[in-house]
Design a protein that fits this description.
Elements (H helix, E strand, L loop, with lengths): L1 E5 L12 H14 L3 E4 L2 E2 L6 H18 L9 E4 L2 E3 L20 E5 L7 H13 L3 E5 L8 H10 L5 E5 H5 L1 H13 L3 E4 L12 H11 L2 H15 L7
Parallel strand pairs: 1-2, 2-4, 3-5, 5-6, 6-7, 7-8, 8-9
């Protein structure tokens, strides 16, 4: 399995607080069958430059390696990435590629937790069509609290972008129906754990996969994983 969205790096954001937790998360992901995962800490343009963020991410990776990352053959592959919060002028940011999943042009984009507007949609459109980024909208189900945002998400879905649903949204009955509908409507449906720790937001990709296979079928799940492999530039075993 490929997990497109995690906060497994130690001490860099609101995810794993230390390397010990990161290693426990990694072991749990391996038990569930995850083979490849993106380490995607939050990036907020109003808090730090891209250069500063990448330096901090490198430090977190070094701490993770010291704790045991990469020591065992059966460990998942961990790819540097970022969960980029939308900001005005994002389509004009020259260093944005440094925030993509390493070795790709795939950008994990978090839309604002507010009412969206046409300007934001135009910026995302420019990122996709003019600049050639492979945009993945992360957990859009969390933003559909208004008719306006639902309407604008439909516009975004006309673009060649990925729609990444959080596994947790499939595990709660209140959000499962909407999450499944978004996956079915997406041209490129994707799944991420958005794991932050081992307690309140633990690795749960395996549980999310079970819901998808039960509700949408194994072939649908395999198509999702093939899309994830393409967006990460990785191959994976069909499991």
């Amino acid at each position: 399995m490929i997990d497109l969205h995690t906060h497994i790096l130690p001490g860099i954001d609101d995810g794993s607080p230390n390397a010990g937790t990161s290693m426990r998360m990694l072991r749990q992901m391996a038990v569930q069958g995850t083979q490849i995962l993106c380490a995607s800490p939050h990036y907020y343009a109003d808090e730090q430059s891209i250069h500063e963020f990448c330096e901090k991410r490198d430090v977190a990776f070094a701490e993770f390696r010291q704790a045991g990352l990469g020591e065992y053959e059966d460990q998942p592959i961990v790819l540097p990435a970022a969960e980029v919060a939308f900001f005005p002028g994002i389509s004009e940011q020259k260093e944005l590629e440094r925030l993509c999943i390493k070795g790709t042009h795939t950008l994990l984009l978090e839309m604002p937790f507010c009412e969206w507007n046409d300007f934001q949609i135009e910026e995302v459109t420019s990122l996709s069509l003019d600049l050639g980024y492979q945009i993945v909208l992360v957990h859009p189900e969390r933003f559909l609290f208004s008719k306006n945002n639902r309407r604008l998400l439909e516009r975004l879905q006309e673009l060649p972008i990925g729609i990444q649903i959080n596994a947790g949204s499939l595990l709660r009955w209140q959000s499962r129906k909407q999450a499944l509908r978004l996956l079915q409507e997406a041209a490129c449906p994707l799944l991420g754990s958005d794991a932050h720790n081992m307690t309140t937001r633990p690795p749960n990709l395996g549980e999310g996969r079970s819901v998808i296979e039960r509700k949408l079928g194994t072939a649908f799940w395999q198509r999702m994983q093939e899309s994830a492999a393409r967006l990460t530039g990785c191959s994976f075993a069909r499991t």
